Amino acid sequence: MSSSRSFDRVLVINFGGQYTHLIARRVRELSVYSEIVNYAEASQQLVEELRPRAVILSGGPSSIYAENAPKVGSWVLELGIPVLGICYGHQLIASMIGGRVERGLGEYGKTEIEIVERDPIFNGWNSREFVWMSHGDYVAELPKDRAVVLARSVETGYIAAFKLIDRPAYGVQFHPEVVHTPKGKRLLENFVIGIAKAQQNWVLGSVIDMIVEGLRKTIPPGEKVLCAVSGGVDSTTTALLLKKAVGNGLVTVFVNHGLLREGEAEAVLDMLKSLGLNPIYIDASGKFLEALRGVRDCEEKRRIIGELFAKIFKDIAESDKSIKWLAQGTTYPDVIESGFATGADRIKSHHNVAGLPQWLGLKVVEPLKYLYKDEVRRIAVALGVPEDWAYRHPFPGPGLAVRIIGEVTEEKLRIARRASRIVEEELAKAGLYRSVWQAFATVGDDKWVGVKGDKRAVGYVVTVRIVESEDGMTADWSKIPHDVLEKIASRITREIPEVTLVTYAITSKPPSTIEPC
Ligand code: XMP
After folding, report:
1. Contact call for residues 11 and 47 (beta carbons, < 8 A)
2. Which structural domain, as residue segments, surrounds residue 412?
3. How far is the CA of 313 from the centre of ligand 1 (A)?
4. Closest ligand 1 atom to the C-alpha of 473?
5. Cys-Cys with 53: which of 101, 198, 263, 501 at CB 3.0–4.6 Å?
6. Catalytic: 175?
């Protein structure tokens, strides 16, 4: 993030650990900017250019002795800044200084450790505390002239924490970033604030100023930016930040692709106007539905929708030659999940990430690229977005096309819309709307025989999906009270005659994804 020079930064080098994201989030919760870099990209040159205040080496699934084990060089200890290795990172530092890592008994879950040497990293910790462990290998030995053991597991005696003698580099075998390590947040605070002395200036006002300043530097005067808004918190916030940065240089457009939720187009237009955004309104629903006719595959639907959007943007840009930029509401998890930051396999092609065709000929600007959703929501409210809108559930760009399994038909659209509205209404009535991440109803081509009146009727199966999540990357199915589920189910079958069965999706992500396709 080139424009974040004024923010102290903590760099998290990712070795593929399942909790790496949490490390960055916890650091940001301390009001310190934190960024994740994949180990393969973390060259000495890059890290020196980024000038972080501290480096954290994440956990990871490998053994450091495995062939092709992910590594960074021991230059990381020579940067003159504090380093913290967590789990795999802890073992990596140990091996860099000539320590011995071996296959051990394995410690998984809640584990008691004893602090054997006091150090500022354990400020606020009692001499015995519970931590969360998840490792097979362990640090069996450390060279005495290089490191001092700070803590050991009570049961196994394994080294749970150590510090290098001549520099502020630490290793912890446990995971301070997970809630199951009750004092973990305190340890990270001790490291980031106490030891690395990072400034706590990653606060709302300065983040907004930094983004706006960055946009002004990026977009030359006289060049306009096209920003498509959907009413979602990401695109609305993107537009508001751009308005602050370039004023009349911003052209907003709201495209109705006919795949929106019930009553959404009108409500979104009203909300955007109240924020002074006055978008160009394009009703392209006929075009989109026509292009989707007969298409059953979800990735194909995404491709068609993305391409149609791009064509609409192209037409607008051709009608105003000063439009040189396209703004996108990409957030940090989109970047990570699309595999750009981690090299991970692509799961679904979120069309707002690098999915734009070259022929569009517009440069891309993504002001939210480094922000988590909760940060975007707080910025939205600070910029005047009504709370109800800022805390609306995320809704995919391709809309109901990815909530309808199989072909998108008028009938299935009507069912998905009405049923989803019922789900949202009943959750709101039960006071549960804000506590879940997403809640909706999906429909496919499966049929179920029902009895309506005293007649047999064959109808659609509707699946209700309600999940809890921090950022959509992983999710738990929500344990909604049965009476609320019952109300939802009975309203759906009563109010939508074509539906004969309602099911509730009780698979978390992973292994499922949140959307049905
Ligand atoms: P999945 O279904 O991949 O969803 O677990 C994770 C989050 O991403 C949203 N999602 C999308 N958003 N375009 C978007 O803008 C898409 O094609 C898309 N597919 C999924 C989904 O709603 C959830 O919040």
Report:
1. yes
2. 408-504
3. 22
4. 6
5. 198
6. yes
Catalytic residue among 87, 227, 298, 517: 87
Sheet holding 147-153, edge to edge: 33-38, 9-14, 54-57, 83-86, 169-172, 159-164, 147-153, 100-115, 128-141
pLDDT tens, residue by residue, 52-85: 999 999 999 999 999 999 999 999 999 999 999 9
Q: What are the Cα distances from residue 57, in Å, to 76, 131, 173, 193, 379?
A: 10, 18, 12, 17, 29
Query: What's the gap in Å between 71 CA and the centre of ligand 1?
Result: 32
Q: Give the pairing type, strands 280-283 and 250-256.
A: parallel
d(CA 464, CA 469): 16
DSSP state of 128: E
Question: Above 60 in pLDDT, residue 3?
Answer: no
Give the residue, out of 305, 403, 467, 515, with the most ligand 1 atoms within 8 A of its beta carbon, to mutate for a pocket test: 515
Catalytic choice (35, 129, 177, 189): 177
CATH number at residue 323: 3.40.50.620
The DSSP output letter for 314 is H
Per-residue buried b or exposed e for 203-235, using 16+ beta carbons within 10 Å of the residue's own CB = eeeebbebbbebbeebbeeeebbbbbbbbbbbb
Cβ atoms of 466 and 423 closer than 8 Å = yes
Whole-structure pTM value: 0.80
State the Cα–Cα distance between residues 485 and 489, nearest whole angstrom: 6
Gap from CA of 93 to ligand 1 centroid (Å): 37
Whether 315 and 185 map to the same domain: the answer is: no
Give the three-state DSSP class for 455: strand
* DSSP letter, residue 358: G
Cα 368 to Cα 216: distance, rounded to the nearest angstrom = 15
Q: 81: which 2 tokens?
A: 């800044």
Based on the fold, state whether residues 229 and 298 are members of the same structural domain. Answer: yes
Q: Which atom of ligand 1 is nearest to the CA of 509?
A: 5
Note whether 23 and 178 are within 8 A (CB): no
**Residues 394-436 pLDDT 10s:** 999 999 999 999 999 999 999 999 999 999 999 999 999 999 9
